[in-house]
Amino acid sequence: MIAQNSPIVNITDAEFEKIVNFVYRTYGIDLRKKRQLIEGRLSQTIKTKGLTSFEQYFNMLLNDKSGTEMNLFLNKITTNHSYFGRENEHFEFLQNVALPDLEKRRQRELRIWSAGCSAGQEAYNIAMTIDQYFGPRKSQWDTRILATDISTEVLEKAKKGVYSADNLTDLPPIWRSKYFKSQPDGSYQISEAMRKEVIFKVFNLMDQIVYKKPFDIIFCRNVMIYFDAETTNKLVKRFYDATSEGGYLFIGHSESIDKEYTGYTYVRPSTYQKITRK
Ligand SMILES: C[S@@+](CC[C@H](N)C(=O)[O-])C[C@H]1O[C@@H](n2cnc3c(N)ncnc32)[C@H](O)[C@@H]1O
Q1: Residue 125 three-state SS
Q2: Which residue among 145, 222, 254, 263 is least enclosed by CB atoms within 10 Å?
């Protein structure tokens, strides 16, 4: 329903419930408290398509077999804020504890996953940390990082790897010159060497995790804040099953894991390890 002259298309209770249930069932994202976000982010799309209600829009979304509309919808409803050096303690721990530990246990290969990677900052940050840790030994190791998200828009940005200067302020200045190329417009592009270290793919975290070898390091930070407890517990269980013995899980500082539902051992705030053999 469009109020006269309003840029907002008002969503009815029934329409809101339908969209909330669909997004929860399919993507795990809990939008129950996000009524304004839905109206605000989708009104323009509805108008541009010549539609007049959320009901019409939702029907169009479900009937679009190409998947294009669903991608655009996901790009709108996901929150993709991220930056380099976010929750830097994780990268310090990675460099000082986890990588030395894993280097002793593994042979020339580490399996790493940035789950819910947004525009790639987290994955490239891991790649830079690995480069710092291994130095010249890096050439003997395959440490390519799988980075996944449901938003195709952020994945395109991630592949280009171009960031504004303020997205890099929390990185050591020397990293900026070593791992980025400054652009004429003041932005920075990630170096070719780092780009080769990350493989970006679309993946919905509600789907079954299929892997050839289990992961030694999983980063899933600031993603589960959008999920409810039940969805989070099930996802952490799937992460656990997909983690190698001695492997690590990093979650966001504001997130938590319910001890009752996980086999991971607590290492330090927002850092867990899979230890089954003592
Ligand atoms: C706030 S960003 C976090 C980015 C990065 N991990 C960080 O900590 O800065 C959350 C990301 O999770 C993604 N996401 C949300 N639900 C998802 C799902 N079901 N499957 C995969 N990615 C999802 C969003 O598209 C978004 O890019």
Answers
A1: helix
A2: 254
The encoded tokens of residue 24 equal 């929860």
pLDDT in tens, 96-130: 999 999 999 999 999 999 999 999 999 999 999 99
Give catalytic status of residue 41 as yes or no: yes
User: Which run of H or of E encompasses 244?
Assistant: strand 243-251
- In the DSSP assignment, the letter for residue 9 is B
Ligand 1 geometric centre to CA of 278 (Å): 34
Q: Is residue 26 lining ligand 1, measured as CB closer than 6 Å?
A: no
Q: Supply 251's token pair.
A: 């979650």
Return the CATH number of the domain spanning residue range 13-77: 1.10.155.10
Instruction: List the beta bridge partners of residue 109.
Output: 142
Domain at 89-273, CATH homologous superfamily? Vaccinia Virus protein VP39 (3.40.50.150)
- Sorted by where each begins, the domain ranges of the chain are 13-77, 89-273
118 C-alpha to ligand 1 centroid (Å) = 6
Nearest 5°: phi and psi at 106? Answer: -110, 165
Q: Whose CA is nearest to atom 2 of ligand 1?
A: 80
Indicate if 216 belongs to the active site. Answer: no
Tens of pLDDT, residues 242-270: 999 999 999 999 999 998 889 999 999 99
152-160 and 68-77 are packed helices; what angle lies between their axes, rounded to 10 degrees?
Answer: 80
Q: Tell me how crowded residue 33 is: count the other CB atoms within 10 A of its CB.
A: 8
